[in-house]
Amino acid sequence: MNHWQGGPPVWAGPHAVRRLIGAEAAADELRIGDAERDAVASALHEHFGLGRLTAPELDERLEAALTAKTRGDLRQITRDLPEPHGLSDAGSTPHRRRHPGHPGHRHRFPGGPLLLILLIALVAGGLEALVVAVQVVLVLMVAAAVFSHARRRKHS
Question: 62 and 31: one domain?
Answer without folding.
Answer: yes
